[in-house]
Amino acid sequence: MTSILILNGPNLNLLGQRQPDVYGTTTIADIETTCQDKAKALGVEIRFEQSNSEGTLVDLIHSAKGRHDGIILNAGAYTHTSIALMDAISSVELPVIELHLSNIHAREAFRHVSYISKVAVGQICGFGPAGYPLALDAMHQLLDT
Ligand code: CA2
Question: In terms of pTM, does the model score above 0.70?
Fold first, then answer.
């Protein structure tokens, strides 16, 4: 069965608990439930992870090789800074879809830079939590063709 790793970076564990005006009221647990439901409907398997640590995210990307067929990555603020995550993605040679809740291009200039974009197949941003099932649809299509 097709297996997709969904990786979430720093501070995303706080979703729904702090700054609801900026990031909404949906929690990371709600998003995981939505992803599990979507995966079931698509007939794929997912692993859903969140870490605040850059090194842990690098390790999870490395361990995806041979276990998962693709990665959906919301790297949070590491998107804009992490050459380590970019290199880890290049090293595993798996398709990666970059995902953001917010439209990073409509925000501060420092969020317009993404190291992930350089090695991702594509980017989904600006749709809030609905971006997660959209990304699963996109990955499913990508792996099917
Ligand atoms: O829009 C996204 O998904 C981001 O990856 C979210 C990151 C931000 O640094 C990126 O530029 C865009 C921030 C996640 C912080 O999440 C919080 C949730 C609740 C309270 C505080 C932070």
Answer: yes
What CATH class is the domain 3-144? alpha beta
Q: What is the mean pLDDT of each run of 10 residues along the chain (145 residues)?
A: 98 95 93 98 98 98 98 98 98 98 97 98 97 98 90
- Delimit the domains of the chain by residue range: 3-144
pLDDT of residue 22: 82
**What's the pLDDT at 145?**
65
SS (H, E, C) the chain: CCEEEEEECCCHHHCCCCCHHHHCCCCHHHHHHHHHHHHHHHCCEEEEEECCCHHHHHHHHHHHCCCCCEEEEECHHHHHCCHHHHHHHHHHCCCEEEEECCCHHHCCHHHCCCCCCCCCCEEEECCHHHHHHHHHHHHHHHHHC
Q: For ligand 1, is residue 64 a contact (CB within 6 Å)?
A: no
* Pocket perturbation via mutation, ligand 1, pick of 30, 54, 100 by most ligand atoms within 8 A of CB: 100
